[in-house]
Write a structure and sequence with these properties.
Shape of chain A: elongated
Strand order of the largest sheet of chain B: 2-1-3
CATH class of chain B: Mainly Alpha
Order of helices and strands of chain B: HHHHHEEEHHHHHHHH
Order of helices and strands of chain A: HEHEHEHEEHEHEHEHEEHHHEEEEE
Number of strands of chain B: 3
CATH topology of chain B: ABC transporter involved in vitamin B12 uptake, BtuC
Distance between the termini of chain B: 19 Å
Number of strands of chain A: 15
CATH architecture of the largest domain in chain A: 3-Layer(aba) Sandwich
CATH architecture of chain B: Orthogonal Bundle
Helix content of chain A: 40-55%
Strand order of the largest sheet of chain A: 7-6-8-9-10-14-15
Structural class of chain B: mainly alpha
Helix content of chain B: over 70%
Oligomer: heterodimer
Radius of gyration of chain A: 23 Å
Strand content of chain B: under 5%
CATH class of the largest domain in chain A: Alpha Beta
Structural class of chain A: alpha/beta
Chain lengths: 375, 356
């Protein structure tokens, strides 16, 4: 009898609660999928934490949409990501913020294309992520677009016209950026005076740097990750060669390379949508909250995911998504809405077209006194 | 019928019956939509891992050789399957997915079988742990090679290039170097996976119980004695190893065509060890054990998702507990005692039947 009474009480409370909630914001169920364990956990945790900061902020605000975040770990694995994706949908997710890394995103996105599930990836940058799928949208530049954006930035800011390119010809990321950079450089009247390659095993870059120096390059474009870049900077300093070094988002992290003299990186420019030390209000707010919650400085991935939550909320509002909608229904509405919205985020002002690739102003940071600074 | 024969027959029937029953239950769950997405998504991978475990058991449990490169054969099957399927679709416009899938699986099996035989010829003549070392190296070599392999199809022809991507305009890429096999149209189905399991069980169980199987087991138990009986050791070890490689290739083709993309990093040494764990936990030489352990250990990490970051820890603990429990004499005798009334019941019934 007591039990029955208690149950009735609970039901009553639920009913009154529901009634009171009628005017409350709509809660969307968004699944974050990324590697929160394993070798790529650094990136997955960054996007998860970035998204969590945004969700806490959004749910405390008077926005018409609140978000319930579901997290599933994909271990940066093409088989596991499908399991994570299915588990997320079983848990009631309506749309996906993810996945963090490119290859799993390609696999899960294709599955989502068949099932009609909407994906917004903060950081998967390979072109294959959005190719042949209408359901996947990117927040970061895709690899070829980074080359395009770099050439445009160099030309628009008159950094120089004689350019050397050093790239890793065994790496998809590096060659992808190089190809579009070289093509766009020709359009912008930039002259490529030296072009040299290396592979993953290369440790001595003196030939490449000497070639750039002998051909009088004013700018050395480095579409690569930070480890080879740090070696190139070292060699150039030894040769007393001081052009402008221009990197892409893979350069992010060069200041934390073990045993690297950060003074060598003085004046290096890199294309990045986010630097934690920037002084604008949005960045300061995000970095402070992130540091309070997780005790570390956010990286670019975290900022992308932070923006992702706001983009989803904006697109959901545009599309009129309700809490009862199934993922299939949400998908088509979101695809249409994404092409209509413009979002002013941490990483720039963004719009999207039907390809799913983002269009935003490229931003380049310069390393001054061991910190990234926006011009 | 001798007692040994009868036991074997019962064991085989139980194995087939369990697999078929599981299939029927899952099919009915799919039909009335009570299955979760999560489980449904894992059905084909589970079929692949079962075939992998059973075939590796043939090498390790039955022929007594240690192979550490089983994932290498799987990757050959996966890539071959992806290429064959893509080729049939783009060059011959074969729209029938079942036909493409079956041809891809056969091609994957043949390719892996040939490579398995090539490796086996020199290595299986040697004694000791050479096969373990060579298969380990083989797995890594395959992974490095496919990293720089480019295969595309244009004008109805397959085009290969190595190290550099050298393809004419308009080529549809099937294998794109470090990006792996790309733009695969997923065509694997649970039913085909189930049939593949049945074929695997049929091949392996029949091989074990055949004359050749007896010879293989004899070379495992005592090589010198077997040789002195006139058994050509290398030949029988080759039979077991090549069969296992071909089955792994078939599993690989099914696995590859279940996803839209396959990358070389999926088939690392770790993956081979994973299959080895299935085999060891299921029991060396125990085919039914391999089937059960491959299923449970594939599903387990997903069931443990509730533990989030601690699930791999929980997984490891479960593995250790299973090892301890299955090998503890006290627990074994307890389990035996638990089951003895049931066994006695069976014996009585049988006697009754005989009298009647």
């Amino acid at each position: 009898m007591k039990k029955l009474f208690a149950m009735m009480l609970v039901v009553c409370m639920l009913l009154t609660g529901a009634a009171a909630l009628a005017d409350e914001p709509i809660t969307l169920r968004v699944a974050h999928i990324g590697p929160t364990t394993g070798a790529a956990a650094l990136y997955g945790l960054a996007t998860l934490h970035g998204a969590e900061v945004a969700v806490a902020e959004l749910n405390a605000s008077d926005s018409p949409y609140h978000i319930e975040l579901i997290n599933e770990d994909d271990e940066h694995n093409v088989e596991k990501v499908i399991n994570a994706y299915n588990a997320a949908l079983d848990a009631g997710a309506q749309m996906i913020l993810g996945t963090t890394t490119s290859k799993p995103c390609e696999a899960a996105g294709a599955q989502g294309y068949t099932d009609r599930v909407f994906f917004l990836t903060p950081s998967a940058s390979a072109p294959a992520v959005t190719e042949d799928k209408d359901n996947v949208f990117q927040i970061c530049f895709n690899d070829p677009n980074q080359g395009l954006a770099s050439a445009q930035y160099i030309a628009d800011h008159n950094l120089g016209t004689k350019i050397a390119v050093i790239y890793n010809n065994a790496d998809v990321y590096s060659t992808g950026i190089r190809d579009t950079f070289v093509a766009e450089a020709a359009n912008k009247g930039l002259e490529i005076v030296s072009e040299t390659t290396f592979t993953d095993e290369t440790t001595d870059f003196s030939v490449q740097v000497a070639d750039a120096q002998n051909n009088g390059a004013e700018i050395v474009f480095l579409p690569m990750y930070y480890t080879p870049a740090s070696l190139i900077l070292k060699i150039a300093a030894n040769k007393d060669y001081h052009p402008v070094f221009f990197g892409v988002d893979g350069m992010d992290g060069i200041l934390s390379v073990d045993g690297f003299d950060t003074s060598l990186a003085e004046g290096v420019m890199l294309l990045t949508p986010f630097v934690a030390s920037a002084s604008d209000e949005k960045t300061v707010n995000f970095v402070t909250k992130y540091q309070e919650a997780y005790g570390e400085t956010p990286i670019q991935f975290a900022a992308d995911a932070y923006d992702g939550i706001y983009i989803l909320a904006a697109a959901a509002e545009k599309a009129g998504i309700t809490a009862e909608m199934e993922p299939e229904e949400v998908c088509d509405l979101m695809i249409a809405a994404m092409q209509e919205i413009a979002v002013e985020g941490l990483t720039g002002s963004m719009t999207w077209d039907e390809s799913g690739a983002v269009s935003k102003t490229p931003m380049a940071a310069t390393i001054i006194n061991g910190e990234y600074v926006f011009e | 019928m001798t007692k040994a024969k009868r036991n074997r027959l019962i064991y085989n029937i139980v194995t087939y019956a369990l697999v078929i029953a599981a299939f029927l239950i899952l099919q009915s769950m799919i039909a009335n939509k009570t299955i979760t997405r999560s489980l449904k998504g894992q059905l084909v991978p589970i079929c692949c891992w079962i075939v992998m475990a059973v075939s590796l058991n043939l090498v390790i449990g039955i022929s007594g050789e240690l192979s550490l490169g089983h994932a290498g054969f799987m990757s050959i099957g996966a890539y071959t399957g992806a290429v064959v399927s893509g080729w049939l679709l783009n060059a011959f416009a074969v729209e029938n997915t079942l036909l493409r899938l079956v041809l891809a699986i056969i091609a994957g099996g043949v390719m892996a079988g040939i490579l398995g035989a090539l490796i086996g010829i020199p290595v299986l003549r040697l004694r000791g742990d050479y096969l373990a070392i060579v298969t380990l190296a083989f797995g890594e070599i395959i992974r490095s090679l496919v990293n720089v392999l480019y295969i595309g199809v244009s004008d109805g022809r397959l085009r290969f290039s190595f190290l550099t991507k050298d393809m004419p305009e308009g080529t549809v890429m099937l294998v794109d170097g470090a990006k792996g096999a790309v733009k695969i149209k997923p065509i694997s189905t649970f039913t085909v996976g189930f049939v593949l399991i049945l074929i695997t069980l049929f091949v392996v169980l029949n091989l074990i119980n055949s004359r050749a199987g007896c010879a293989i087991k004899a070379t495992r138990d005592n090589r010198i004695a077997a040789e002195s009986m006139g058994i050509p050791v290398t030949k029988y070890k080759m039979i077991a190893f090549t069969t296992a490689a071909a089955l792994a290739g078939m599993a690989g083709a099914l696995y590859g065509l279940n996803s839209s993309t396959v990358v070389p990093t999926q088939f690392t040494f770790n993956q081979s060890i994973n299959v080895l764990v299935f085999v060891v936990l299921g029991g060396l030489g125990n085919v039914l054990g391999s089937v059960i352990s491959a299923t449970l250990l594939t599903v387990l990490p997903e069931v443990l998702r509730a533990f989030s970051d601690y699930r791999m820890l929980a997984y490891a603990i479960v593995l250790i507990l299973v090892m301890i429990f299955t090998n503890n004499p006290l627990i074994r005798s307890f389990v035996n005692r638990l089951f003895s009334p049931i066994k006695r019941l069976f014996r009585k019934n049988k006697q009754g039947g005989d009298i009647a």
